[in-house]
Amino acid sequence: MVDKVYDDAVAALDGLLFDGMTIAAGGFGLCGIPETLIAAIEQSGVRDLTLVSNNAGVDDFGLGKLLRAGQVTRMVSSYVGENKEFERQYLAGELQIEFCPQGTLAERMRAGGAGIAGFYTRTGVGTLIAEGKETKMFGGEPYLLETGIVADLAIVKAWRADPYCNLIYRKSARNFNPMAATCGKITVAEVEAMVGPGTIDPDQVHTPGIFVKRLIRAASNEKRIEKRTVSAGAV
Amino acid sequence: MVDKVYDDAVAALDGLLFDGMTIAAGGFGLCGIPETLIAAIEQSGVRDLTLVSNNAGVDDFGLGKLLRAGQVTRMVSSYVGENKEFERQYLAGELQIEFCPQGTLAERMRAGGAGIAGFYTRTGVGTLIAEGKETKMFGGEPYLLETGIVADLAIVKAWRADPYCNLIYRKSARNFNPMAATCGKITVAEVEAMVGPGTIDPDQVHTPGIFVKRLIRAASNEKRIEKRTVSAGAV
Amino acid sequence: MGWTRDQMAAIAARELADGFYVNLGIGIPTLVANQIDPAIDVTLQSENGMLGLGPFPAEADVDPDIINAGKQTITELDRTSYVSSADSFGMIRGGHIDASILGAMEVAENGDLANWMVPGKMVKGPGGAMDLVAGVRRIIVLMDHVDKVGQPKFRKACSLPLTGTNVVDMLVTDRAIFRRENRQSPFCLTRLAPGVSIDELRAVTEADFNDTR
Amino acid sequence: MGWTRDQMAAIAARELADGFYVNLGIGIPTLVANQIDPAIDVTLQSENGMLGLGPFPAEADVDPDIINAGKQTITELDRTSYVSSADSFGMIRGGHIDASILGAMEVAENGDLANWMVPGKMVKGPGGAMDLVAGVRRIIVLMDHVDKVGQPKFRKACSLPLTGTNVVDMLVTDRAIFRRENRQSPFCLTRLAPGVSIDELRAVTEADFNDTR
Q1: For chain B, which ranges sit under pLDDT 50?
Q2: SS3 at position A160
Q3: How far does B115 lie from chain D, in Å, by closest CA?
Q4: Is the pLDDT of residue A233 over 90?
């Protein structure tokens, strides 16, 4: 068996990082983000990054760490509302942002990973999102052309992995991770725990090992909560 | 809970069948085909069907039953090689066939179910499949425009279902079933066995219940094998 | 005078039918969950990949891996399933969600909706709102009838950047209910809130509408 | 004279590297599975949604739900995972499969491949072949050097309808091995089968090629 399991994030990212690169990351808000790999990317000092991620983290956590360190030039995201440092850099003209509707972003990452160069969606027709994009009629309705995204590197967070790098995600921490895992020219995964070969039911693999070139055990599983709501507080 | 579980295939298909309709079916070869629902469609006598299915069954099994009964006018398939009656009807001009490359067919069904009107693929560029289809350049390479498929009815075969119609497929019987389940205006599933609510791990649902409007226990699980190969006969 | 937010949520909740799959937006729409008739079976979807949302957890049961699209911690039910974001928006874009209840900054008389950005203010992004209005079968908007300075939010045309064009099917404000038969139809006033007269309503409504009470 | 089918399969098998994910077509390519060096780790993929194919089962272990793309009953391994057809072709079209080994009716000197239909004969359909040649990184073709009536199958241009244009990277016949550096390069003869002379080869080859032995 080819050993794709690395000792730590620095080893797993060795040779993969370069200034000006595009990195796609799984996660929604702070849920299901590859904390360990993000920390290692911060420490590497790599700069001028384009990040493809639904959100931008918060000021001191998640991708917010890379923003705070001034390593990010451009974000492709659907929602960046929880990050003051993001706002400061954006208003200062230090940061570019390409907004994608959330479903379009998910589909663009899936498309990039699946060899689909572009696709037509109704989402965003007649809005600012449509500016500069081709429109085509299907069944008398206008649809927008959106393109697939392929990143230089994709980083994802999973719950369980076997030595073949078959991955299982946990609950809503799945979110963008499966598509991110497919859309990287190379994909590095971090996982909460390893299990033995043959332990994962072949019917229950979320991301087959073919998509994961390097794997580490997550050193950090802080799983910070953005909005802790408990039953005392309604619903 | 809304009761989506019907007593039998006749009840589950009641009111859904009409001449000239399009039916999408899961299955690859004879693996993972909705045997019970196919038999009920044969018995209903509905005619002039367009079938969207990777294969056309064999002469006396699977969708071959509907072909033999003269109920099919048109097939949208990737491979129809195992069916003599198909060949006879086709050569006699009684049957039309639209060939789709297998991956394009899978993607067209997924697209139809996901509100994607069309997508661009390299598959089929420069071949007969490209005739009459738009080509567009992405990154200096030509891609073909293929369109999403929405069927009047989709029929699928699953292994386990809970009363909410969350489905799990088994091994390579999954194949086209998940996409078929999404691309019907209405989807009817047959399942080998029902399990209680909460029995299926929420992380392991293959087709969420939202896609399945009616469900039956499969009356027929013959699972005929097309090519029985055993270890005596080489790897 | 007028309806409270809970009353608005209750009005929207009565639009939901047995067996519906529903996506609730952030803000007033979140209140709808509490107002659904226990006699009907409604499954809530959250676009981050959860189908079958349960209530907020007890303190001891908080799980950082179970959140809704508003990033709030929630719980699962015996019907719950998780999917990827791509598959979640497959449900949404593909027309499999029966209704979405959303907040708004402005609604126009032609059904246009604006709820994602205010020029000159920091833009946070559309999130999943554009996908929801483009794909969900029926869009119900809950919003205050006027803005903070008393200006009408139900307009002839939206002044703010759009989330979608001709996507609103029903509008519930604190002062009135407007419905339209389909997306070719004009909005019709079907009910006034208690203590609101038609003249008062017209005075704070820029949009044209038919009065079909 | 020339190589047997097993020898051709062995030649192709030596092109596979440790850690490769490989899709094998129907016919001669199926024989490659037996020829892979046990010292390297190769994962076989089947386009009907199985990654990690095992050998044929013992009679008692035949499972109708475990088949390959040739519809043969097979077994799973401890690495196996199943995916939908859409996800399976995501692997293929997305360039995640390292190599595919396919049969052919004709190969042209520009890399065109024809292996799915003969005009006038009943057309069975392309199956997954067009997707494979469009998406897999490296395409190795195994075919007899001449057809049943002795005509060349490695041609200046394909006479049969194409499966893909400029997609073949390596051609192994019973008489010779041809490689090209990349898809802008011409094919080069790199090896003759035992007992085959270059003149004999040229006599049964319509395609131009460089001799770089």
Answers
A1: 233-235
A2: strand
A3: 15
A4: no
Asked if B214 and B34 count as a contact pair (C-beta separation under 8 A), the reply is: no
Q: Kindly state the tokens that stand for B183.
A: 């691309």
> pLDDT tens, C53-71?
999 999 999 999 999 999 9
Q: How far apart are CA B58 and CA B56, in angstroms?
A: 7
pLDDT in tens, C105-154: 999 999 999 999 988 888 899 999 999 999 999 999 999 999 999 999 99
d(CA C192, CA C174): 9
Measured CA to CA, the distance from residue C43 to residue A23 in angstroms comes to 35
| Cβ-Cβ contacts under 8 Å, D126 against chain B | 78-79, 99, 101-102, 124, 127, 129
- The pLDDT tens digits for D85-132 are 999 999 999 999 999 999 999 999 999 999 999 888 888 999 999 999
Q: List domains and CATH numbers for chain A.
A: 9-120+147-217 (3.40.1080.10)
**Selected catalytic residue, list D47, D106, D181, D206:** D47
**Residue D109 known to be catalytic:** no
- Please state, in angstroms and rounded to a whole number, the distance separating the CA atoms of residues A70 and B123: 41
Where on the phi/psi map is residue C17: left (φ > 0), alpha (ψ -120 to 50), or beta?
beta
Q: Smallest Cα–Cα separation from B115: which of C95, A201, A56, A53? A: C95
The DSSP-derived string for A5-53 is B-SSHHHHHTTT--TT-EEEE--BTTBT--HHHHHHHHHHT--SEEEE-
Considering only CA atoms, which of B48, B42, B112, B44 is closest in space to residue B75? B48
DSSP three-state, residue A199: coil
Nearest to D41 among A1, A110, A166 (CB): A1
Transcribe B139-188 into DSSP letters: TTEEEEEEE---EEEEEEEEEEE-TT--EE--GGG-TTHHHHHHHEEEEE
- Closest residue of chain A to C120, computed from CA coordinates: A91
Nearest CA in chain B to A103: B114
pLDDT at residue A87 in the model:
87
DSSP letter at C41 equals -
User: Could you give the ipTM of this predicted complex?
Assistant: 0.97
Q: Mind listing the pLDDT tens digit for each residue in B44-85?
A: 999 999 999 999 999 999 999 999 999 999 999 999 987 888
* Side-chain half-sphere CA neighbours of C199 within 13 A: 0
Mean pLDDT over the full length of chain A: 96
Distance CA A171, CA C24 (A): 19
Examine chains C and D and say if they touch (3+ CB pairs below 8 A). no
CA angle C13, C14, C18 (to 5 degrees): 90
Q: Within an 8 Å CB–CB cutoff, is residue B90 touching chain D? A: yes
Is the model's pLDDT at D61 over the cut of 60?
A: yes
Structure tokens at A116: 């689909």
Shortest Cα–Cα distance, B230 to chain C (Å): 37
Touch of A by C (3+ CB pairs closer than 8 Å): yes
pLDDT of residue B51: 98
Residue A225: both structure tokens together: 């909560």
- Provide the pairing of β-strand C138-142 with C76-82: unpaired
CATH architecture under which domain C5-211 falls = 3-Layer(aba) Sandwich (3.40)
Confirm if C74 and C80 have CB atoms less than 8 A apart.
Answer: no
How many other C-beta atoms are found inside a 10 Å radius of the C-beta of residue B176?
Answer: 32
**Which chain A residues touch C73 with a CB distance below 8 Å?**
225, 227-230
Q: In the complex, which subunits touch B with 3 or more CB pairs below 8 angstroms?
A: A, C, D
Percent of chain D with pLDDT over 70: 100
As a whole number of angstroms, the distance between CA B69 and CA C120 comes to 67
DSSP string computed for A171-197: GGG-TTHHHHHHHEEEEEEEEEEE--T
pLDDT tens by residue, D16-40 = 999 999 999 988 899 999 999 999 9
- Residue of D82, D69, D90, D91 whose CA lies nearest to D24: D69
